[in-house]
Amino acid sequence: MTERWRTITALFLLAVIFFCAITITNHLGRFLRIDLTENKLYTLSEGTRQVIEEIRQPLELKLYYSRAAAMKGPEGIRVYNNYYIYVRDLLREYEALSNGRLRLTVIDPRPYTDDELDAIRYGLDRYSAGDEPFFFGLAVASELGRVAVVPFFAPNRQPLVEYEISKSIYDAATAIKKPVGIITSLPLFGPGLSPYMAEMMRMQGREVPEEWLIIKQLKQFFDVVRIDDDASKIDDVELLILIHPKDLPEDLLFAVDQHVMKGGKLLVIVDPYCVADPVKEHHLRSSDMNELLEAWGCILKPNTFAADRSLGIQVQMGPNQPSRRLPTYMDLTGRSFNSEDVITAQLQTVRVLFGGAIESTDVPNVTFEPIMTTSERGNSISASPADVYRFSNPDMVERELRDGSQPVVLGARLTGRFQSNFSEGPPAVAEDEKEKRVQEVLGESLQDTTIVVYSDVDMINDFVAFRETFFGPAPRGDNVNLFLNTVENLGGARALSTARAKGRFNRPFEVFDRIEAEAEQATAEKIAAVEAEIEKYQKELQSIVSRIEDEGEALMRGEVIERKRELEESLLLAQRELRELNRDKRVRIESLISKIKLCNILAAPSVILLIAVIVFLAGIYRKKKYLGVRNDE
Amino acid sequence: MMNTALVVMKRELRGYFTTPLAYVFLFVFLFFANFMTFRSPFFEARQADLRVFFDLLPVLFLFLVPAIGMKLWAEERKSGTIEVLFSLPVTVGRAVMGKFIAAWLFIAVALLLTFPMVITVNYLGSPDNWVIAAGYIGGLLLAGCYLAVSMFCSSITANPVVSFILSVVICSLFVFADYPSVLLVLESFLSAAMLEAVENLSFVLHFESLRRGVIEFRDMAFYVLFITGWVLATAVWINGRREAG
Amino acid sequence: MIEVTNLKKVFGPIRAVDGVSFTVNQGDVLGFIGPNGAGKTTTMRMIACLTRPNEGTARINGHDILKDSLGVRKSIGYLPENTPLYGEMTTISFLGFVCEIRGLVGAEKVREIERVVQVCSLSEVLYQTIETLSKGYRKRVGLALTLIGDPPVLILDDPTAGLDPNQKRDVRRLINNMASYKAIIVSTHILEELDAICNRSIVIHRGRIVADGTPAEFREQGGGRIDDFFEAVTRGRE
Question: How far apart, in whole angstroms, are the C-alpha atoms of residue A56 and residue C121?
């Protein structure tokens, strides 16, 4: 008894040890593998390695797989389960290669959860499996909200899967920086002090102005080109950004105009009152680009501010006072964003301070689309910039604000072909030369282009777009995303991924293809002839039928009816011939298939049978031979 | 001195080819392997690979390998020859190993006898023969797992039929360990980590990479550990029985 | 050669062997005798390392059965009860298998097979599969297996069971021929066999040795008949 228990204990220990060992080795990862496939289908390609190497920012790889749904679903989904494990492991390999820049999370988006919502928002394909939705896709998200997806991993596209994944990572990371030009009146780039000067200022206890964080962020993805006020030409820039532009010289305006005429994209961020403007005089803190924009489809209404009671943020006017909503300081949420526009589709909240009101000027051939608005309760209130401070007092706003019935537009997208503001010729040119120079001016955009206008500059300023944390400034809400999405959308690099598509994975039965080609060639003439015949019969039949319809069957002579019957019959015969000809093509393949089946299914086992029979006959022979011996005993 | 494990292996192997069981096994295996491979999806898909065959193996082995494994020890115990074997100077470990390797080699022969399939796909198109080779390696390892389980079952009973049924049941646990419906049941009382560990015990899961043409350390480690574990368990059990009498 | 000290074996509540000790020297043929279930087979199996004693030990040719099972088995030729054999093997391949296990290969193996085949007169059935052999031949094959490698100790569990008188005589003659240079333990429940082959016998009853002496002594004690002596020691204590 004790021995038995000892054995059972030993077996139990053995089971535990090996179970643990197997589990541990499984978690050791995929560090040793040999890819035997001819085209190295399952080894991450050089292109992918490059893509991973070039990632400069952390990316989150979110693998959505409805595991629970797959478990409940029919057994057919098992294919997906195995494929899911493959994809997951492949992604783990990406993760392992990335030195921590890629982080993989596996998510099972159960119905009615945020995960499911995310999956939908990322644009993953949604299928139904039983009574639950089924997702199997990847979202690659950068910290700045740039997202690229593989909507669905279809097992039959397995050899392409690496390309798809790499491409989405590449897209999310956007490795190549494209140039964007910026014209601004604000010290976005800092004062351009030398380090010595900055140190001096710090020592004197003065605050050292620094480059805006948003510009720092932008520089991670784009080559930011600062365009000075004295520039008269803008070249090599796909996207031009105007931030709080004030009193631009005519030449520069002309350059901006011509940039748009060349098909360049434009982002205009203006403000009826920019809190961040270092100018002391309040009335100088406003900007608009109406001199150009009016002709292009919209204006910023002067001295007008958007306000919305339902969106206003809570502010406390002084110590021991209850906090109140301030409708001119808004946190835009939810329906404020155009869910159909790629820029705003994924945004949650954007904070706006003293935003302006944008209005369409109804220019033909240009579509004006609001992408960011107040709610329907929002309305605009007027004040001159000089005494706008009134609107930082809830009581004052409350007194003047009436609930509106139409959302106030805070951001708009204009698309189409725009007309030049300088069709009479470039500015500041002597009258006699104007005639000549007018030829060089482009009067209309060469192609459809896009202008996006926002009516608040403060929303991209550090103190609104970021908040201080223990670890340094962190983005607040989606202000940064809004800006970067816009820039990305207008000037983004969509270069092709260098990750190559996997090579040959289709290995057809060449013999079958050859047979089919040969058969086709052999019967092509016949088939053509029969098809021509069929067409002829059909035409004649058609004419007879239409005659019958016109004149009525009763009036037709017997021979026509007879002819019709004849035609129908020969048509039928010809069609049958065609079918048979087509079948001939298959016959040769079918016979080959049966030959192969016969050889394989019967030949190999028969050989075994034969050997067995021989062995046993030999055995019986031996037995007989020795039977005598046995009987002799 | 010749390794006694090898001697035992040689004797076993010779035993296979002098009994009808071996030929019945080969016949049945080859017939079903060919019959089911050259069926519906093969000619319609027109892909020059042996995926259909390798997909088939887990189920085919489920019934055929226990048939080979069931007699390994059960018969020895039934006929009493185990007394003869262990009165000879051979350790339990070596005897177990010898028997296991013999049966494994026999299954390897059966697998190799499917070579006409390889010729067929090479005639029909240009398959990636390295992938096919990896598939065969995987098939062999897969068979090793079934065999190790079957051998253990064979050692705990003197009745080959009981041994066969027991092996089929235990093996199917490992075959279906990653079936969604099985996981769903397990999910109700296992943590996620345990669930993954259980799923990881699936034979089929570890066969997946191999039949695609990728040899992974992880899968190899699984097969080696799994087979070693069950073979060791067999040795422990037989030794235990020997001591108990 | 064989020193058995206080062997005990328990199967559940049954004390199969309960403190058996004896010694067998070279040249001895020890007859093990006793009613069915007395513990003869269990004692022999313990000596042949087929099962482990709960208590006590035995030394065979200097090897302890608990510590050096492999060494013990190298020096023992064991014939199990009922002579189980691999039926599908031919005689010669079976003999060859045992030779190889005992480390005899090549020419040595051939020589050894020739020797045991001659000793056991198996030349006529060498290429026959064992399942086709008659009982007498099977027994002889079994005996031949124990002789391979010429182990100094033979343990034969009922070697004459189920044989006809002629075959029995053959087996006894075989044992007698080897007696002088080996230590042999033979179990039997045929009393006359003791006279024929043993120079010493032990009566086992209920796991204990109840008599130890030569067959002649037994006869003397039984009043001229071994049967009476046997009955006296095995029944008298009930």
Answer: 88
Residue B6 CA, distance from chain mean position: 20
Question: Is residue C90 a contact partner of residue C122, using CB atoms and an 8 Å limit?
Answer: no
Contact (CB<8Å) B242/C45: no
Contact of A165 with A209, CB cutoff 8 Å = no
Q: How high is the ipTM of this complex? A: 0.87
CB A124 within 8 A of CB A139: yes
Confidence of residue A138 (pLDDT cuts 50, 70, 90): very high
Candidates A368, A334, A369; CA nearest to A348 is A334
* Per-position DSSP letters for A434-480, written without gaps between them: HHHHGGGS--B-SS-EEEEEES-SGGGSHHHHEEEETTEEEE-TTHH
If one counts the domains in chain B, the total is 1
Name the nearest CA neighbour of A38 among B126, B130, C167. B130
Residues of chain C with CATH 3.40.50.300: 1-75+152-238
The residue behind tokens 């302006």 is A356
DSSP state of A177: P
CA distance A64 to chain C (A): 59
State how far residue C78 is from chain B, nearest Cα, in angstroms: 6
- Contact A30/B218 with Cβ under 8 angstroms? yes
Q: Which helix (H) or strand (E) holds C137?
A: helix C135-147
Q: Name every chain C residue with its beta carbon within 8 A of the beta carbon of A619.
A: 129
What is d(CA A21, CA A2) in angstroms, rounded to the nearest whole number?
28
Q: Which residue of A has its CA nearest to B34?
A: A601
- Cα–Cα separations (whole angstroms), residue A373 to A306, A307, A349, A369, A370: 9, 10, 12, 11, 7
Residue A298 pairs in a beta bridge with A360
Chain-chain contact of B14 with C86 (C-beta, under 8 angstroms):
no
Number of CB pairs, chain A paired with chain C, less than 8 A apart: 24
* Separation between Cα atoms, residue A493 and residue A482, nearest integer Å: 17
Model pTM above 0.90: no
Give the CA distances from residue B203 to residues A78, A554, B177, B179, B220, in Å, rounded to whole numbers and listed in that order: 14, 78, 8, 11, 11
The CA distance from A33 to A579, in Å, is: 52
Reference B161, options B81, B77, B67; nearest CA is: B67
Q: What is the pLDDT of residues B109-161, one digit of tens each?
A: 999 999 988 999 999 888 888 889 999 999 999 999 999 999 999 999 888 89
Query: For residues C118 and C177, is the Cβ–Cβ distance under 8 A?
Result: no
Chains in contact with C, where contact means 3 or more Cβ–Cβ distances below 8 Å, are A, B
Q: How many CA atoms lie within 13 Å of C104's alpha carbon, on the beta-carbon side?
A: 23
**Fold assignment, C1-75+152-238:** Rossmann fold (3.40.50)
Domain borders along chain A are: 1-32, 39-173, 178-301+355-375+406-491, 510-632
Residue A265 contacts residue A240 (beta carbons within 8 Å): yes
Task: Specify whether the CB–CB gap between C86 and C154 falls below 8 A.
Answer: no
The topology (CATH level 3) of A39-173 is Glutaredoxin (3.40.30)
**Distance from C-alpha of B70 to C-alpha of B158, rounded to nearest angstrom:** 10
pLDDT at A627 over 50: no
Smallest CA–CA distance, residue C60 to chain B, in Å, is: 13
**Three-state SS for C78?**
strand
Q: What is the mean pLDDT of residues A290-311?
A: 89
Q: What is the predicted pLDDT for the residue at A357?
A: 92
Contact A630 C52 (CB under 8 A): no
CB contact under 8 A, A633 and C132: no
Strand pairing class (C153-157; C76-79): parallel
Q: Please identify which residue in the block is written with the tokens 């899967």.
A: A161
Say yes or no for a CB contact (<8 Å) between B225 and A25: yes
**Is pLDDT above 70 for B5?**
yes
The residues pairing with A451 across neighbouring beta strands, listed in sequence order, are A266, A414
Q: Chain A contact for C93, CB < 8 A?
A: no
Residue at A100: amino acid letter:
G
